[in-house]
Design a protein that fits this description.
Distance between the termini of chain B: 53 Å
Largest sheet of chain A: 6 strands, mixed
Strand order of the largest sheet of chain A: 6-7-8-3-9-10
Distance between the termini of chain A: 38 Å
Structural class of chain A: alpha/beta
Number of strands of chain A: 10
Largest interface: A-B, 27 and 17 residues
Radius of gyration of chain A: 18 Å
CATH class of chain A: Alpha Beta
Number of domains of chain B: 1
Helix content of chain A: 25-40%
Oligomer: heterodimer
Number of helices of chain A: 9
Number of strands of chain B: 0
Helix content of chain B: over 70%
CATH topology of chain A: Rossmann fold
Order of helices and strands of chain B: HHHHHHHHH
Structural class of chain B: mainly alpha
Order of helices and strands of chain A: EEEHEEHEHHHEHEHEEHH
Radius of gyration of chain B: 21 Å
Largest sheet of chain B: none
Strand content of chain B: under 5%
């Protein structure tokens, strides 16, 4: 049986003014697979996942999510797609005027259209337990540590039970122990909720723990692809530089 | 890459604002109006501005009266001071000064808040979760400004008359009843209606510019300050332009 591709990108190009960021990027992600993207800063990793989420539109090329071309989607179709995608931002992007509970309830009320307070509370507690933050439900984002903010961001991403999660540098700015905890949490979420994921990271420990497949980007396109061990043993000097 | 001429850049900015305006109107009547956030904004914009608006209005009335007394006294026309103050405050000075104060307090606050949300990707997070950031953040704030600025102006006008009465009473011993009789007797709908209508436009401009500048912030933390600053300056300029237009339109409708 052929494996279902949830994300397919072919020849993606994107420029900002006179700066070309994506220059023929291609990739695919199979259902239930974690794809880790490595690359120097400014090579277009974040732009790629923002295109997948429909936050940016490509200039050229094809980008299909669940078999549908994102560029051709109207507002309602894009909204429906986003209900199936979660995005963990580098900064976690918590709504800082709301408590943890309100942050979690926000998409439940507006996207899942839940009205029952007990049901909302139960779902909030379920995801907070999944990320080990059940005691923080009444805290404000400003009262959370860096690791707790990432966990909280992940909880908010998971609350709508997305089928694909896009992680933008999930361990950046965290200490080694917390980074490892977050990486294991990503793996745990994949197993528990059967999600597919695209993970952008510079943290090789995170890549080793979470990756089913690793891709290396340079100058706006993919230059190498394989599993972690294959790329770690690559003779290419550029690829080797990520693993040293 | 073609060079962007200043005229082209201006056109692009105008187009961006027109698109933002269209986005606002499209989202007003969409299902799922954010009532809780709307009432919170009414409280934030209205109730929390009462102090500064009351103080400004009161001092305005006192100063205008104290400045007028020597000139009016020279002509033996002190009895006209309540009417002069009420007409000038209600028709022109009150709405414009309060709108400028609110541009400084409210437009900057909205610009900084939304700018900060924009640079920390909170607005992107809302959008990518499938929620509607324009409906939640923009519609509620613009409507709250459009409702609260006129009410704050009416309140400030009242405080200006109180201030004027106290200054007048201290100078000439005029009674409260006589002061307010003279202050209100001179007013007609031609004074009240255009003044009230223009405060609605001022409120809309303050909310709209604050939200637009905040949403447009995209260059790190420095752009948050720029958004707040630009919101105040642009809203203030728009207040003066709207005032000039409405005075012209009002005069041509009422007095031609």
């Amino acid at each position: 049986m052929a494996t279902e591709k949830v994300i397919e990108i072919e020849g993606l190009k994107k420029s900002f003014g006179d700066k070309t960021v994506l220059n023929g990027m291609s990739l695919f992600v199979n259902k239930g697979e974690n794809l880790v993207i490595l690359g120097k800063s400014g090579t277009g990793k974040s732009v790629t996942i923002k295109c997948i989420a429909g936050l940016l539109t490509q200039d050229e090329g094809s980008l299909k999510v669940f078999g549908e071309e994102v560029k051709n989607m109207n507002e309602e179709q894009l909204k429906a797609l986003r209900n199936r995608i979660g995005f963990l931002f580098q900064s976690a992007a918590l709504y800082d005027s709301m408590t943890v509970r309100e942050n979690l309830a926000f998409p439940l009320k507006r996207v899942a259209h839940l009205k029952d307070k007990e049901q909302i509370e139960a779902l909030c507690i379920e995801v907070l337990e999944a990320v080990g933050l059940e005691d923080a439900i009444d805290k404000m984002p400003a009262d959370l540590s860096g690791g707790m903010r990432k966990r909280m961001g992940l909880a908010r991403t998971l609350i709508l039970k997305p089928e694909i999660i896009l992680y933008d540098e999930p361990t950046t700015g965290l200490d080694t122990i917390t980074s490892r905890e977050i990486s294991k949490l990503i793996l745990d979420m994949q197993e528990r909720y059967q999600t597919s994921a695209v993970i952008i990271t510079h943290d090789m420990s995170c890549a080793k723990i979470t990756a089913d497949k690793v891709m290396v980007m340079n100058e706006g396109k993919c230059v190498a692809e394989g599993n972690y061990e294959e790329l770690e043993n690559s003779s290419d000097q550029f690829i080797q530089s990520f693993f040293k | 890459m073609p060079v962007q001429l200043p005229f082209n850049q201006t056109l692009i900015k105008v187009a961006d604002q027109a698109y933002f305006l269209k986005s606002f109107f499209r989202n007003i009547f969409k299902k799922g109006f954010e009532w809780d956030e709307f009432f919170r904004q009414l409280y934030v914009i209205g109730y929390r501005s009462i102090g500064i608006v009351a103080l400004t209005g009161f001092i305005l009335g006192v100063v205008l009266t104290l400045q007028s007394i020597p000139s009016f006294k020279a002509f033996g026309a002190e009895g006209y001071i309540p009417g002069m103050v009420s007409v000038s405050v209600i028709r022109e000075i009150g709405p414009v000064i309060i709108a400028l104060i609110c541009a400084g307090k409210i437009a900057s606050s909205i610009g900084a808040e939304l700018g900060s949300m924009s640079v920390t990707e909170q607005i992107d997070a809302m959008e990518v979760s499938g929620a509607n950031p324009v409906q939640f953040l923009v519609v509620t704030r613009i409507l709250a400004c459009t409702i609260m600025i006129p009410l704050l102006t009416v309140f400030a006008d009242g405080m200006a008359l109180v201030g004027s009465y106290l200054a007048n009473a201290a100078s000439s011993g005029i009674s409260l009843h006589l002061f307010f009789y003279k202050a209100t007797n001179i007013l007609d709908y031609g004074d009240l209606l255009p003044a009230f209508i223009k405060t609605i436009f001022f409120g809309f401009a303050i909310g709209f510019i604050g939200c637009f500048k905040g949403f447009s912030a995209n260059g790190g933390t420095a752009s948050v300050g720029t958004a707040a600053n630009s919101a105040v300056v642009t809203a203030s300029v728009w207040i003066i332009i709207i005032d000039a237009i409405i005075v012209q339109v009002g005069n041509s409708l009422l007095y031609s």
